[in-house]
Amino acid sequence: MSSLEEARAEIQRIDRNIVDLIKKRTELAEKVLESKRKSGLPINDEAQNKVVLERAVDNAIEFNLDTNPVRSIFKILIEMSIEHQQELSGKGKFP
After folding, report:
1. Contacting residues for 36 by C-beta, under 8 A, at least 6 apart
2. Measured distance CA(20)–CA(18) in Å, rounded
3. How big, in percent rounded to 5, are the helix, strand and coil portions of the chain?
């Protein structure tokens, strides 16, 4: 196997792991929703969203990554979590 093929195979494994982690993160939305309901918090918790984004930027800086794409990725993850929580509560975009 060439070094290019090896690198691409490793990227493929990493990509699968990333998708698996996204799935696990999204599944936690049910527990988060239960806690929000008990605490009377809205599904879209702007204060927590800010904390998540700040933490993502801090991690990007620590790993010497461009913070803008990392912030964009985490905005998408937050949106996915909000949508999943809305679906679980019967308020989602999808039936």
Report:
1. 42, 43, 45, 85
2. 5
3. 80, 0, 20
pLDDT tens-place string over residues 33-91: 999 999 999 999 999 999 999 999 999 999 999 999 999 999 999 999 999 999 998 87
Q: Which two tokens stand for residue 6?
A: 């090896």
Q: How many residues in total does the chain contain? A: 95
Which residue bears the tokens 């090896």? 6
Amino acid at 46: E
Residue 92 has pLDDT above 80, yes or no: no
3-state secondary structure of 41: coil
Phi-psi region of 40 (alpha: psi -120 to 50; beta: other; left: phi over 0): left
SS3 at position 79: helix
